[in-house]
Structures are given as structure tokens and as C-alpha cells.
Amino acid sequence: MGQFLLDSGDPLYLDEYGDPGRASGARPTLVCLHGLGGGGYFFAGIAHSLSSAGQHVLCPDLPGSGLSLGGTDPSPSTASPTSSSN
Predict the structure, then answer these.
(1) Which domain holds residue 54?
(2) Which of 6, 19, 57, 85 is the 20 to 30 Å CA partner of 49?
(3) Rounded distance, CA 64 to CA 48, Å?
(4) Residue 79, domain member (yes or no)
(5) Nearest residue to 68 (alpha-carbon basis) of 16, 7, 19
(6) 8 within domain boundaries
(7) For 45-67, what is each residue's pLDDT tens digit?
């Protein structure tokens, strides 16, 4: 599962894939940012594949989107935020 981070008191939801310790200078952490009406869960499939290959990937729900403050919960029947720690 993802986690909630606090920035200026507002919760920000973040899915994290892979191990940040395994992301060396040759493999920097990737951040997947969604567009209007999206959510970090849109990147779950590619983020999981990249983390399986040793990449560290962050997929936040930007403020007002997804599970972040002011956003709407994505429908569990269409997509749900998932995370794996590899």
C-alpha cells in the first residue's frame, strides 16, 4: 500500500515501488506525475515492472487528486493504488 506524507499540513498520497537503496547514480529515482483527472495509480503497472528491474519509482497523487487532500477515491473496480517493496 501507499503512504500519506505531510507537506505544509496537507496530506499527499504516494505509492512507492522498489528500494531507494538499490537506485544508484546510474539508476536515479523516477517520479511519475499524472495529468488532470488522473492519479498515481495510473502508473501502477509500469512502476511495478520498473521496480522488478531494480528501479526506484514514486507515483504521487498530486494535491486535489486521487487519495490526496481534496481528491476523490479511485473506484476499486477500475484501479486501486498498490505498491510493492522490492
Answers:
(1) 3-61
(2) 6
(3) 24
(4) no
(5) 7
(6) yes
(7) 999 999 998 889 999 988 887 77
